[in-house]
Each structure stands twice: as C-alpha cells, then as structure tokens.
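Record pair follows.
FIRST:
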Amino acid sequence: MAKLPIVAIVGRPNVGKSTLFNRLVGKRVALVDDRPGVTRDRREGTAVLLGMEFKIVDTAGVEDEDPDTLPGRMRMQTQNAVREADVALFLIDARAGIVPQDEEIARWLRSEDTPVILMANKAEGKAAESGVLEAYSLGFDTPMPFSAEHGDGLVDLFEALRPHIEFEGFDDVVDEPEEDEESGPLKLAIVGRPNAGKSTLVNRILGEERMITGPEAGITRDSIAIDWEWTAPDGQVRPVRLIDTAGLRKKAKVQDKLEKLSAQDAMHAVDFAEVVVLLLDATLGLEAQDLRIADQVLQEGRALIIALNKWDVAENPPSLFQGVRFALEEGLAQVRGVPLLTISAETGRGMDQLIQAAFDVREAWSKRVSTGVLNRWFEKAVEINPPPAPGGRRIKLRYLTQAKTRPPGFILFGTRVDQLPESYKRYLMNGIRKDLGFGAVPIRLTVRAPRNPFDR
C-alpha cells in the first residue's frame, strides 16, 4: 500500500482548524471551543473527501512567541507539520477579515516549498464577503470560500487538492479492505414470502433443527441471527452470520399489529445485512410481491441473490428457470444479472454454491477501483457515447471518482450535469458494472458541479 499524502491545516488561533479537521475525518476527534489555543499538539487522522483519501494534520494556532515558551514550541510543531506535508490548507476567518497575524503567517508560508491552498473559513452569509475579498492581498491563488461548520465548499476543496494528491503518484493507489470487511463474518439475511422455506434453509445450512419449521405460514416472527462457520470445498473455514426473517406479505394483506412489527423487523435485518438471499417457492414461481421485496433490498443498497427453493419438486424445471430469469430481467431492470440459483432446503441441494455465491457477491459489493483506472475507463466511455447537448449547449463531463463502497458509490463531476438524462447515467452505471467487475450489485451515481463564483 502506498503511503498516504499528507495535508496540514495551518492558521492563527480560533479560525476553525479543528472544526475542519473533524469535518474531514468524519467524526468529532479534535476538541473544539470558542477559546483560542485549545489545540496544542499535532493531531493526525485519515480523511476521505469524496473518495480521495489522505492523512490530515491539525496544528496549533501560529503565534509569534519565543521558541522556549509553550506557544513557541507549538509554533515549531506547526512549522514541522507544514514542511512534512504535500500541501497546506491556510485558514483565515472570513468574518473577521485579514489581521496582521494572518499576514505574518502568509509571509512565512510563501518562504516554504509546500504548496498552499488559501481557505476563507466561516464564509456563510454576507458578513464574510469583504473578508473573502481581503484575502486576495495575502499573495496566494484565489481564496476559497468555505464553512467547516456546515460543510459548504467540500467540492471546491476536492478540486483544489486533486492536483497535489491524485496526480502525483497516488491516482493508482487502491485502498486495502478493512480487516473486518475482508475477514469478518458474512452477514447473510434470508428473506421472502411466508412459507417459502426460509427457516428450513437455515436449519439445512446449520445441520440442525435450530429454527421452528412447519407447513403453517408465518411461524417465524423475530429476525434471528446465528453465528456459524462454513467449510468451503477447498477446506477454508469462513465465518457467517445467518439471519432468518419473518415472511413478507403484501402490505394490503397485513392487518395484524404483530405481523406488521415482524415485517418491520425483517426489513431492519436487511439494513444490517451485507448480502440478502431472496427465497422463492419454485412450486409457485415468481410473483409481484417477490419483485417488490427485491426492489426494497436493492433500494437499501444490499447485494442480492435470488434462490429458487423446492427445486426437487418443481414442474418443468428448464421452462420455469427461463421464465423466472426473463421476469427478473424485466422487473429489476435497474440491476440486470442478479445471481439466480436453484436449491432444495429439504434435500440440501445447492447449499455450498449458495454460500460461495454470497461471498463472491460481497467481494464485488466491497470493491474499490483506483481513480486512475476509473478515469481511463470513463474517458473511453464518454468518447464512445458522448453526453447529449440539451438546447444546443454541451454537457461537459470532467472526471469520475469512487466515493465509497458497500454499496459502491461514484461521483461524476462536470458542468451542467444537472441536465444529464437518467438514460445516460444508466449507461455509465451499466458500464461500470460490466467493465470494472462490479457485477449485479447496486451502484450509486451522484453528479456534482463546482461552485459558480458568478451565481450571485
């Protein structure tokens, strides 16, 4: 794994450095208070900004003091942090305007070799406009209006950091999966209509009568999680957390309060699952309720597998399989190619194939593609099929980045992207699935445009 680039935050006391640090690391780590001088030591954290990962360093407020004093030693720590950084974020308070201390810090930063991005923090509201204009006098590039408190300006910060981070040997860095994602138990939920055989399937997988089963529909009420270890055909032992859920009927048919609570509990279990197996009764085929459940699972961003149970007693299996496959392609057009397996919870047919498919689809669901690989694919995709020009004005697509995994989420940057048709977004998402190895997992695509300074 390549070393993460380093970004240092610098500025006089109480301009919002720790608030920005907390914003970028995604949690309240650094202490924040209205009093100046709260931060003393350098604090480091891992930041992820719209898919761009880097090490962020919060520093003490720069004050002109004797090196032997505490403020002087704090200043030395800040200077060392800036010299070790790949880029420095110089914060000023836009509402307070430029003060002599800001000018002193600017002179020092101009004497260093570290690139500097000037950020006018606390820029929400009209009171900050004059401070943003004053910042031009500090001798850096265009000051960036920003609000660490509210998160305004994150897209602009992403664009300003890209030349210093993405294009200097870091664009092909791929994040290693977190340990709990790679080796943690597979969270596998079994859902479906009542009496599809969910509890019988769990019992067969476990090899014991762990769940109560019977011909009556709706025996299971609570979502039950069971930890288990699967021995793969190659002998590898892998942990699994199986979650059996209550049957899900059409909402119109659910009148009993307890059944409503059971249905809510089942969907709550889906929220915490990684992979969801939608179990169908092969003797009944695919019904509209099955498609509704599948759509809910995909809307929640979970990886989906569809299993045809009771295959040992199904009539005309080849025709049934093709009919279900065709109906899925039509009914789940947003995610084509969802894995469709045939199993028998009664006889044990297809158990290993089902668990292996669940591990495979979790791997795709957790996949991250480097920015370099992603944008090389993106340039070819746009060249083959350029975006339309509504009203004769061209939509310019600039680049694509993966912001998250589990499920994979991508952000598309460009101008006039708010007019990009849904059909073109689907073209990009289908290409990502097909060409970059994501398969049939749900994908999120968000469009973003840089702030227009002339919007006012």
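SECOND:
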Amino acid sequence: MAERHIDHIEVEIDGVRRAVAVDLDESPLGWLARRRGRDGRSFIAPVQLIAGERLRADFTRAGMAPRLTANWDAVTRTDRAGGGAGLNASEAMLAARQRVGRAMEAVGPEFSGLLVDVCCFLKGLEQVEQERFWPARTAKVVLALGLDRLARHYGLSAAAQGPARARTRAWKAPEPPEGKD
C-alpha cells in the first residue's frame, strides 16, 4: 500500500480554530507544497497551502461541488448535524457559501476561476493550462499570486508584523532605591 502524506494544519472558521487533517496527495496544493524549486524552497508557502485548504473546506461545507449520486444527508442527519458554533446544517452551509463568495470577490475575477479549479475541484496545473490554452508552467505562477491574495483576504501572513518595540504593560512593585537590591 502506498504511503499517504497526511499533514495537520489549523484553520480558523467563524472565529473558531480547528485542527484539520489534510491528505497532501489528494490536493494539487499538497503536491506543490512538498515539491522544491532550484532554490530549495517549496513551490507554495505554508500560508498559501492553508489559504487554499481553507477555501476548499468552505467549498465542501457549502455543498457547492456537483453531486454524482443522490443526496441522502437530509434523511440521515438530525437538524444539528454538520453545523458548528450552534448552527444547524442548512445555516452552516449558507454561512460557508457566503464565505466562499466573499473570498472569490476578494481575489477578483482574475484569480477566482483558477483557485476554484485547483483548490476546490482539485484539477492539476497541466490540465488547467490545457483548458485555458496557457503556456506551460504559467498556472503555477498565477496560482501563487491568487493564493497570496486569498491568504491576505483570510488575514494570513508568513510572518507576524508589528511595532519593533511594544509598550511594556505589566504590574510590578516599585523599583528599589539605588544600591539596595
């Protein structure tokens, strides 16, 4: 049996942080995250992988993928199944659909189609290039730009940024007089 590449990442959805297991062999993003370029860096950064997987999770939760068989979920689920943060299943689906819509609006029409194809429908880069009549290796560059924009929309960054020195806020006893320690 072939070895699977499972990675655990943490995503924030509706203010709730959750650990998510990601099968890196299933997603083109996982493949790109594992591959290294000539400079030794991976083709996509971890923050780009997290952004793409977050989009995919919302897309799946929203039920936006086409179904190939009958939907038996309504028969087997109770009203509270599949929801999070006190939402019933249909409210959770609607909320996920709204998150996908906001993300697509934030990345713009230039990147939204490519992100849906690669992140949600799991199309390979070569397939995307063939379908769009793009030159070879173009999709990788455009995907990286789209994932950067998506990560920015989600508030994700590769490095924390803030002031060089923060104001000290601490309760402490008064300083002892000089010479008395």
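COMMENT: Helices lie at 28-34, 46-61, 73-76, 89-107, 109-120, 125-132, 138-154.
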